[in-house]
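As a warm-up, study this chain.
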Amino acid sequence: MSSIFDSPQFNANLFFPRPDRLAPPEGSDDIYIEVEPEIKVHVRRYPTPNARFSLLYFHGNGEIASDYDEISKAFAYLGGEFVVCDYRGYGRSDGHPTLRTALQDAHKIYQTLKNEGKLQNPLCVMGRSLGSAPAIELCSHYPEIDCCIIESGYADPVPLVERRGLRIDKTTPEEDALFNNSQKIKKVTCPLLIMHGQDDMLIYPNEAELNYQQAGSESKALQILEGVGHNDILMAPDNGYFNCLQRFFDKVFNSTQSR
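Now compare it with the structure written out below.
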């Protein structure tokens, strides 16, 4: 049975890839992971001396890894070695993106980076917007991941389809098992932080609230940041975005290292 999530109409309106023609920043580690024969996905790691954890990051649908060259310094300041993943067709990656392959590729990316010693222990997985899907996918499958952060993420796949200008009455159990964040997040048991802009008009805050309610984590927090929307959440008043991350990292990794 065909799924609307595999249709060209859906994926063409979900993904907005663009090439990366900028020179890599000095000291960065560009990694190419073969996800299918002759198809490699690009990952950029920013080695950080004395980092206390790795942060594996999946970006939004209109971004590429090099967009985070400067922002990576802020995550380094918070103590994380930042590792940002592109999707097929994005930046320096091969192929063409679909939601299904983005989820499948997340497993290969995680396993390869882990096996090659490119991820520190402890590890946080974070997803922004579209990136919430691969982040929840990984955290629902690998209980060894220490914590999860979802920023501006979607919950129910029906509004996700409708935002693409398509119509769908309901999803099948098979589609929900793979594409429904609010169902899959029930299997996430690690410490969880969900962040969302109060003025987000692309993915409404009630989707963040649904993910929070459904999450299986015993230790979970929901932070709705005032005065910001979907694409300016980093600019939350009083450094609210990074202060929220700092509190979460301190709580999780201080307790992790004291075990």
